[in-house]
């Protein structure tokens, strides 16, 4: 018996403990390598942009040079203008996403747990989901005006659909075997939900959060394009109207970077919360 | 001598499959004494797992009477532990937390629970692995954790549904030995379902041999040897052969198959066209006679 345990500990040690340092180094190298590879295309793109503007392939009013855009960016950072607009946009996304995600989680849980709710809600929900977020804006604008309410609603809707679908699918996919264990242990419905169903559905719910946030962010820019006097989307419209294409490009780059960082942040959070998962598979 | 602990009287269980009625259990009666180790052996589709689930209260749709300590079994109870074939550990919880789930609804203080969990983990030989996640465990270790979860609440009956069916022969033998030790020290009534005749004979005070279609108790074979047992003893081998003979004689009930030349001697040859759910198990022999 004891010799058996020893061999097992030995085996586990060889896998998990002894190699940790080497394993980390290997992983760091891989991370750096991937970051470098990921930068190749953006660098080429900037180079093409620089080539196009310096050779005059496009008039300067339409495509300002990278150096000029860079100068504008520095100026906007120094004046704090870019932070003001980005801050406004982020605030809207945080609120909108929060409402949308909570509503989507609740609806998804209800649909995942109850066939009846699912039968009632799914068809109409899918039909509504088919209408792109931006397609809602004209009607909502008439109902809610062009204030913050409209923006929050549109952003919330962007998060709602992926949150609901992924939560419902995740709950449906929790193995019946697991639920039966709960039954054998006399779990109440609430315990089953808290201890089995929600943790079991967590990976799928997390996918919903990621998609939801991405959708929220794109919806935000859309709604700001149409009805706003501040925010990153507003910068785009205003820059185009003024023919300040440098501002437009700076705004676009900021939108991209913020979106990218949010997604990365969620990625890190997901890995942390789901560290029980097999690490070999995703490395 | 000892009073009846688990009483199963004239129990039948029918399933409706696409409008036709399938009799999984037909008029089964079995009395189990407190502290007894009863093993149930039979081919796929003989209703042995169905019987176990009824006993544990996971399934309550049956005719007849099932009583535990004189009370009718009308659902799962913390007095009845169960261990499944797959350990069914939750992958997002550590071994410790998985075992502790067995105490979620028990009336113990936090400190008592912690104490019980660590005792059980020690009992199944998993000390040092409390913080490990299921994917870090081997099959045998995961099943130890499954057994610990079934035992942690100190049930007075433990039902085991082919608990070692998915393990390799060596791990299986080791865990059988350990289960026997746990049974001897904890004095818990155990009911173990298996398709492994050696396992049934090695562990059981009585071996309940079941025949399929419809599921019936064919014969109950008392083993009558003291625990712990010698795997290689002649008496055990004789009883094993007796059980195998009974099992072989149960295969004649499907006349079509009996005409197949291989079917004459070998118990393995029964075609498993009964329950779709059982088809996956076909890869394993219906009766293994692993000699360790």
What does this structure look like?
- Chain A has helices at 2-16, 20-54, 66-79, 81-113, 115-130, 133-144, 148-172, 176-184, 189-226, 232-242, 245-273, 279-282.
- Chain A is an all-alpha fold and 283 residues long.
- The longest helix of chain A is centred in the last third of the chain and has 38 residues, at 189-226.
- Mean pLDDT of chain B is 80; it is low at 252-292.
- Chain B has eight helices and ten strands.
- Chain B is α/β, with parallel strands linked by helices and 292 residues long.
- The A-B interface holds A 1, 4-5, 8-9, 12, 15-16, 177-178, 180-181, 183-188, 191, 195-196, 199-200, 202, 274, 276-278 and B 56, 58, 76-78, 81-82, 84, 86, 88, 90-93, 101-102, 104-105, 125, 127-129, 132-133, 135-136, 138, 141, 174, 178.
SSE blueprint:
The complex is a heterodimer of chains A (283) and B (292).
Chain A: H1 2-16, H2 20-54, H3 66-79, H4 81-113, H5 115-130, H6 133-144, H7 148-172, H8 176-184, H9 189-226, H10 232-242, H11 245-273, H12 279-282
Chain B: E1 4-17, E2 20-33, E3 37-41, H1 48-56, E4 63-68, E5 71-72, E6 80-83, H2 95-100, H3 110-123, H4 139-151, E7 157-161, H5 169-186, E8 189-194, H6 197-203, E9 206-211, E10 216-222, H7 234-249, H8 255-258
Parallel strand pairs in B: 3-8, 3-9, 6-7, 7-8
Antiparallel strand pairs in B: 1-2, 1-4, 4-5, 9-10
Provide key terms for this protein.
heterodimer, A: 283 residues, mainly alpha, MetI-like fold, 2 domains, 12 helices, disordered N terminus, disordered C terminus, B: alpha/beta, Rossmann fold, 6-stranded mixed beta sheet, 4-stranded antiparallel beta sheet, 8 helices, 10 strands, 30% helix, globular, MetI-like_sf (chain A), MetI-like (chain A), transmembrane (chain A), transmembrane helix (chain A), transport (chain A)
| Overall SS class of chain B | alpha/beta
* CATH homology superfamily name of one domain in chain B: P-loop containing nucleotide triphosphate hydrolases
What's the architecture of one domain in chain B, going by CATH?
3-Layer(aba) Sandwich
Oligomer: heterodimer
End-to-end distance of chain B: 35 Å
* CATH homologous group name of the largest domain in chain A: MetI-like
What is the strand content of chain A? under 5%
Number of self-contained structural domains of chain A: 2
- Spans of at least 5 consecutive residues with low confidence of chain B: 252-292
Q: Percent of residues of chain B in helical segments?
A: 25-40%
Query: pLDDT average of chain A, as an integer?
Result: 84
- The string of secondary-structure elements of chain A, in order, is HHHHHHHHHHHH
């Amino acid at each position: 018996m004891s010799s058996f345990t020893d061999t097992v500990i030995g085996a586990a040690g060889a896998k998990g403990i002894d190699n940790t340092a080497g394993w980390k180094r290997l992983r760091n190298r891989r991370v750096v390598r991937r970051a470098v590879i990921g930068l190749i295309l953006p660098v080429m793109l900037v180079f093409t942009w620089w080539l196009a503007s310096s050779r005059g392939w496009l008039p300067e009013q339409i495509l300002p040079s990278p150096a000029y855009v860079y100068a504008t960016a520095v100026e906007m950072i120094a004046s704090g203008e870019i932070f003001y607009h980005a801050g406004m946009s982020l605030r809207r996304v945080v609120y909108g996403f929060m409402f949308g995600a909570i509503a989507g989680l609740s609806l998804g849980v209800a649909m995942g747990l109850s066939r009846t709710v699912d039968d009632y809600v799914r068809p109409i929900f899918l039909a509504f989901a088919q209408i792109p977020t931006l397609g809602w804006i004209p009607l909502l604008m008439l109902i809610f005006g062009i204030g913050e309410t409209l923006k929050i609603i549109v952003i919330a809707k962007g998060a709602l659909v992926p949150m609901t679908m992924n939560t419902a699918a995740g709950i449906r996919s929790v193995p019946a075997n697991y639920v039966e264990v709960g039954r054998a242990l006399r779990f109440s419905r609430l315990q089953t939900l808290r201890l089995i169903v929600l943790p079991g559905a967590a990976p799928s719910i997390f996918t919903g959060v990621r998609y939801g946030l991405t959708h929220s962010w794109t919806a935000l820019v859309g709604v700001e394009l149409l009805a706003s006097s501040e925010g990153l989307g507003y910068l785009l419209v205003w820059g185009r109207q003024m023919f300040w294409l440098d501002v437009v490009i700076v705004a676009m780059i900021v939108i991209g970077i913020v979106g990218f960082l949010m997604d990365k942040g969620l990625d890190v959070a997901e890995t942390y919360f789901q560290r029980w998962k097999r690490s070999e598979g995703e490395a | 001598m000892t009073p009846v602990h688990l009483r199963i009287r004239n129990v039948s269980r029918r399933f409706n499959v696409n409008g036709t009625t399938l009799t999984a259990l037909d008029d089964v009666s079995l009395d189990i004494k407190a502290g007894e180790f009863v093993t149930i052996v039979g081919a796929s589709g003989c209703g042995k797992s169905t019987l176990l689930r009824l006993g544990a209260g996971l399934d309550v749709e049956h005719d007849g009477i099932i009583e535990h300590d004189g009370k009718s079994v009308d659902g799962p109870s913390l007095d009845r532990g169960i261990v499944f074939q797959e350990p069914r550990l939750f992958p997002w919880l550590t071994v410790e937390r998985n075992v502790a789930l067995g105490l979620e609804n028990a009336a113990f203080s936090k400190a008592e629970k912690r104490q019980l969990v660590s005792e059980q983990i020690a009992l199944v030989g998993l000390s040092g692995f409390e913080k490990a996640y299921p994917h870090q465990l081997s099959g045998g270790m995961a099943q130890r954790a499954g057994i610990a979860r079934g035992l942690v609440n100190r049930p007075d009956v433990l039902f085991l549904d082919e608990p070692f069916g998915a393990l390799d022969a060596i791990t299986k033998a080791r865990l059988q030995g350990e289960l026997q030790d746990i049974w001897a020290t904890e004095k818990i009534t155990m009911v173990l379902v298996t398709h492994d005749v050696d396992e049934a004979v090695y562990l059981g005070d009585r071996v309940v041999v079941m025949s399929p279609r419809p599921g019936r108790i064919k014969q109950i074979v008392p083993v009558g040897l003291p625990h712990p047992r010698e795997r290689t003893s002649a008496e055990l081998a004789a009883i094993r052969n007796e059980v195998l003979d009974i099992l072989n004689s149960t295969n004649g009930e499907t006349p079509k198959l009996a005409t197949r030349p291989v079917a004459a001697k070998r118990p393995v040859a029964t075609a498993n066209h009964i329950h779709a759910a059982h088809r996956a198990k076909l890869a394993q022999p219906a009766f293994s006679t692993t000699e360790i």
